[in-house]
Amino acid sequence: MKVAGTGPVAAPRRRKPGRPRADELQGEGLREGVIEAAARVYGNHGFRGASVELIAREAGISRPLFYRLFKDRREVIDVVVARANDDLREAVMQAILPQKQLLPMLSATIDAYFDWCRSHAAIVGSIYREVHDPESPASIHQKKIVDDMARLVREKAEERGSQPLHPLMMETLIRAVEYVGSVSFWPEPPADEVLARNRAVIVRIVLAAVASSTDQPGVPCLESVLA
Fold first, then answer.
1. In this predicted model, what pLDDT tens digit does every residue of 174-187 receive, in sequence order?
2. What is the model's pTM?
3. CA 8, CA 10: separation in Å to the nearest integer?
4. Which of 26, 44, 155, 202 is spaced 20 to 30 A from 13 at the CA atom?
5. DSSP class of residue 22?
């Protein structure tokens, strides 16, 4: 006689590989999941379009839970932009450490920047669209990262006995590199040959600026013009 309720027990369903569900994450793992979701929303919608509702939905959590983790959308997007800038700072540092002269150092900095743009392509467009928007965390971080990049290159050039560029020249070159990088990866990364051409453009600009700022005969250097 068959007893009710007996019989083969169905095997538990296995989840497909991929990101864990939000309700499976706890503590710091949950917070990191929300940061990753905020980065995706920020990349698609920018700061003004990245609402708490969109971020919470992307992260698979409720609005009340979001507010337990972050004060508001600005706080989580600030983390996204700050981490991207930290990655750039570290990439530039590692690129210039082996270099002995100013020109190879600047070339290595350009390569590091383009590599950073490629690895952060999902948010590069939003960052550079908002560098002049005082409401966006991108505008707050932009001047700091430019200052940091100029300081890194200047310090390493001085350590190696290279003639440093005037601060205004260095800042101008960094902003030029930023501009070419931003238009190269937004709204979509271009073909490899276009990317190579864009990099060649900024290298020529940098080489010309450095040549006219150092010891080219008959060409006044920037330092003498600004003196």
1. 888 888 887 888 77
2. 0.76
3. 6
4. 26
5. G
